[in-house]
Design goal:
Blueprint: H1 21-28, E1 42-47, H2 54-69, E2 73-78, H3 83-91, E3 97-101, H4 102-110, E4 126-141, E5 156-158, H5 165-177, E6 185-187, H6 191-199, E7 205-209, H7 215-222, E8 227-228, H8 233-240, E9 246-250, E10 262-274, H9 279-291, H10 293-299, H11 321-329
Parallel strand pairs: 1-2, 1-3, 5-6, 5-7
Antiparallel strand pairs: 3-10, 4-7, 4-8, 4-10, 9-10
Helix pairs in contact: 1-2, 6-7, 9-11
């Protein structure tokens, strides 16, 4: 269950996957005669994260919907390093849409945290489309003697890709502990690469965010080496005092074989855009995603979280006028 934080109320959210490649291939094979002229085509580049991850899969589903439903749109996905890189891409208007973790996105918008040294005003144009799902932090150890994050000194720790939300969160945790990267042996890996490191006994722990019911975490546990731990209570309290992060409990059984609830923190994932996008285009994108949520759920069950009731919970910056127009039509504003 999600505990509301001081910045905004939160609705508790609940969480196979069908490949979207067939849909994308079908679109690519569509005769060009039905596509308007290049001058009329709206190109929608979607920044995700590492290939195979949740952002990447959901982004593929979004691209397929937009391509199928709008002949004047040409949507494509880009694999990236994750949230921090995606925020840079949005700020520089090199993509039109991006998945980002809300608490890190708020730091960008306010020029704080890992963005404190960036040019003032660079991220002022960030705009929100919708809250997508809760993104909890996971603490998985391969050595049973590791009981606490503080036991990781000198250990090999996977903290996520450089430029990802995971690494940004780890930097905040290190700041709280008074550590630097010299205190651990960092591995900037995630998903399959991190799983392979677990199998090969090349890391001692992973401290990185992933969705509830994460296939990556499940596979780590299935190796016989991975053990899911609670995060240190004072770290949870510290992170919950920062921006949009909040204390989060993963119910017992979220990872099969884990019989107790897991206590950690989380942040909402925000589907974002920039102020340079036209109101009409963002309106049509937002409308299409909610009208075809069932297709996104087929791509990834995390799309169950993306409901109209939750759409504006914990946004890190203002809604884009196009998204605002859609929510007003739905009676939400």
């Amino acid at each position: 269950m999600v505990r509301p934080n001081k910045r905004s109320g939160r609705t508790n959210m609940r969480v196979t996957m069908l490949a979207v490649a067939a849909g994308l291939t079908a679109y690519a094979a569509t005769p060009s005669a039905i596509v308007p002229s290049a001058a009329a085509t709206e190109f929608v580049r979607i920044a995700t994260a590492g290939s195979g991850g949740n952002f990447y899969r959901l982004g593929g589903g979004v691209a397929a919907i937009l391509n199928d439903e709008h002949r004047d749109m040409r949507a494509s996905i880009q694999a990236t390093g994750g949230t921090v890189e995606n925020l840079d891409l949005l700020a520089d208007r090199e993509v039109e849409i991006a998945y980002v973790t809300g608490s890190v996105a708020l730091q960008a918008f306010e020029n704080t945290g890992v963005f404190a040294d960036r040019p003032q005003g660079r991220y002022d144009g960030l705009r929100a489309i919708a809250t997508v799902y809760p993104n909890p932090q996971w603490f998985v150890v391969m050595d049973p003697s590791i009981q606490s994050v503080r036991d990781l000194q000198g250990k090999r720790v996977a903290v996520g890709m450089q430029g990802s939300n995971g690494e940004a969160w780890w930097r905040q945790i290190m700041e709280f502990l008074g550590w630097t990267y010299a205190d651990i042996r960092p591995e900037f890996t995630m998903h399959q690469a991190a799983i392979d490191q677990v199998r090969n006994r090349q890391i001692d722990a992973l401290v990185s965010p992933d969705a509830p019911g994460s296939a990556t975490i499940q596979e780590m546990v299935n190796t016989g080496f991975g053990i899911v731990r609670n995060l240190d209570e004072d770290i949870i309290e510290f992170m919950a005092s920062q921006g949009l992060d909040y204390a989060y409990t993963l119910p017992a059984g979220t990872v099969p074989g884990t019989d107790e609830a897991i206590h950690t923190f989380a942040s909402p994932v925000t589907l974002s855009t920039h102020a340079g996008m036209s109101e009409d285009l963002v309106y049509r994108i937002t409308k299409s995603l909610f009208e075809h949520q069932d297709r996104l759920i087929q791509v990834h069950p995390l799309a169950n979280f993306m409901t109209l009731e939750n759409a504006m919970d914990g946004l890190p910056y203002p809604l884009h006028p196009g998204a605002e127009r859609f929510y007003r039509e739905q009676g939400l504003l």
